[in-house]
């Protein structure tokens, strides 16, 4: 596995642990629909929470929210619609981003709730 893939998997693991510790019920991880993938699908306070995880080893690049492009947002929304239909879910849906930065074995987590809205695309 390439180093960037290992880093991504590590970031997703950190994000899952963070969510579990903060009262989220994890439903699925790395859920695929065609070529689209949702990193984490969880529930909290009667919301279906769809999470894109961005992992970095430095903070010099763009903000994680900017790294989730409109195109990526559309893919996430399409996959989420398929997930909701397949699982017959009747809940409000929220799209979050969790940014994990790992520098010198120190981990920082930024959780951006309601990072984007499907109605705005």
Verbal overview:
- The chain is an alpha+beta fold.
- It has one domain: 3-Layer(aba) Sandwich (Trna Endonuclease, Chain: A, domain 1), CATH 3.40.1350.
- The protein is built from three helices and five strands; from the N terminus they run αβββααββ.
- It has a five-stranded mixed β-sheet with strand order 1-2-3-4-5.
- The protein is globular and about 45 Å long.
- It starts with a helix and ends in a 5-residue tail after the last strand.
Attribute tags:
121 residues, alpha+beta, Trna Endonuclease, Chain: A, domain 1, 3 helices, 33% helix, globular
Total DSSP E strands: 5
Q: Could you give the order of the helices and strands?
A: HEEEHHEE
Strand content: 35-45%
Total of domains: 1
Low-pLDDT ranges: none
